[in-house]
Amino acid sequence: MDYKKTKAPGSTIPRDLGMLNSGTDNIYESVMVLAKRANQIGSEMKEELNQKLQEFASYTDNLEEVFENREQIEISRYYERLPKPTLIATQEYEEDNIYFRNPAKEKK
């Protein structure tokens, strides 16, 4: 998914807890779904950032290169400005874009 084009807010906003009951009828189960999805998003974003920064990897300790590498700093700042994974996961949950299942409930 392209997290750069998400409609998630950039900062935390108050939310109605009623939206957590919409998918699972259990607030705690909904929070776990959000937490697991946020972990997935966070790891995907971290992997993408590490791949982009790998291009600039320098294995020598040259102090001048640290100050000259503006592209690396801009990429890092861009990823810092993106919405946090929990906010993206919450937005996906509100829009019903998250698929989840509970195997324990399916056995019954």
Number of helices: 6
Between the first and last Cα atoms, what is the distance in angstroms? 33 Å
Low-confidence stretches: none
Portion of residues within helices: 55-70%
The largest sheet, given as strand count, sense and whether it forms a barrel, is: none
Give the overall form: elongated
How are the SSEs ordered, and which strands pair?
Layout: H1 21-24, H2 27-54, H3 63-68, H4 70-81, H5 85-94, H6 103-107
Helix pairs in contact: 2-4, 2-5
Account of the 3D structure:
The chain has 108 residues and is an all-alpha fold. It has a domain at 23-94. Helices cover 60% and strands 0% of the residues. Helix 2 packs antiparallel against helix 4 (70-81). The longest helix has 28 residues, at 27-54. It is elongated and about 60 Å long. The mean pLDDT is 79.
